[in-house]
């Protein structure tokens, strides 16, 4: 585990702390011809070796550096294929972590993976998945008749309400698992404060009732899920 942690730390330092934004821009513009691409890879190799502090690991560091080069190169040339630039970023990071994991446990990769799989709390995973997008869809269906009667605010960010609801339900689920019910009250209060000005300015009773029902429904779903999980 310590080897993987050190490799991950080296990756975080090399990819985020020691990579200026101008390097990223230069790489995106020049791709394989960018000098900063090769400097970035060299930096990863050096940081990995420094953190491992054992010359016997030079082959491991070299494999990581070379794989990093090809993964980054693939990202640079595939960026234009995605409208949402966050997608290639997260794919890139996932591939890097997979390589680090494989290098750290290359001697017992299958055994370690099976061990980690056995540690997964599938009840918790199911609860987390449920309060995210499935709950958002369920709420959308339940509130569909009401939402058709509400004038849309075109100043709002696309799907902002859906993602706010998902985040708040995840927080509620976390607080219930930790046994901190009072934090749920603080969360409701904070949301009410942020919503107060919007509702005051709109002076729309239907919108106020819609938001109130949606909020109570969202918190209720998360609380019921949390109670079921903690008693499972």
Number of strands: 0
Strand count, sense and barrel status of the largest sheet are: none
* Number of separate structural domains: 2
Q: State the secondary-structure class.
A: mainly alpha
Order of helices and strands: HHHHHHHHHHHH
**Low-confidence spans: pLDDT under 50, at least 5 residues?**
none
Structural topology:
Elements: H1 2-17, H2 21-30, H3 35-52, H4 58-78, H5 86-104, H6 109-119, H7 122-131, H8 133-142, H9 144-147, H10 160-178, H11 181-202, H12 205-230
Helix pairs in contact: 1-3, 1-5, 2-3, 3-4, 4-5, 7-12, 10-11, 10-12
Architecture overview:
By secondary structure, the chain is mainly α. The protein has helices at 2-17, 21-30, 35-52, 58-78, 86-104, 109-119, 122-131, 133-142, 144-147, 160-178, 181-202, 205-230. The chain starts with a helix and ends with a helix. This is DUF3307 domain-containing protein. The chain crosses the membrane at residues 36-53, 89-108, 114-139, 170-190, 210-229.
Which features characterize this protein?
single chain, 12 helices, mainly alpha, 232 residues
Short description:
This protein is mainly alpha-helical and 232 residues long. It has twelve helices and no strands.
């Amino acid at each position: 585990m310590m080897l993987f942690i050190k490799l991950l730390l080296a990756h975080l330092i090399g990819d985020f702390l020691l990579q200026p934004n101008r390097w990223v821009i230069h790489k995106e513009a020049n791709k394989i011809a960018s000098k900063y691409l090769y400097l970035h890879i060299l930096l990863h190799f050096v940081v990995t070796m420094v953190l491992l502090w054992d010359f016997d690991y030079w082959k491991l560091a070299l494999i990581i550096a070379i794989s990093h080069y090809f993964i980054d190169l693939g990202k640079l040339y595939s960026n234009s294929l995605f409208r949402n630039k966050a997608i290639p970023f997260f794919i890139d990071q996932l591939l890097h972590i997979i390589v680090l994991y494989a290098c750290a446990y290359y001697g017992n990769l299958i055994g370690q993976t099976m061990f980690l799989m056995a540690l997964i709390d599938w009840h918790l995973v199911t609860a987390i998945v449920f309060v995210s997008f499935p709950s958002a869809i369920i709420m959308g269906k339940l509130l569909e008749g009401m939402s058709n009667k509400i004038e849309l605010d075109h100043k709002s960010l696309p799907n902002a309400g859906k993602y706010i609801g998902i985040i708040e339900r995840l927080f509620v689920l976390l607080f219930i698992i930790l046994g901190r019910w009072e934090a749920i009250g603080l969360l409701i209060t904070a949301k009410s404060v942020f919503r107060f000005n919007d509702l005051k300015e709109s002076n729309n009773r239907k919108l106020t009732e819609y938001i109130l029902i949606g909020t109570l429904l969202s918190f209720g779903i998360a609380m019921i899920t949390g109670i079921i999980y903690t008693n499972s």
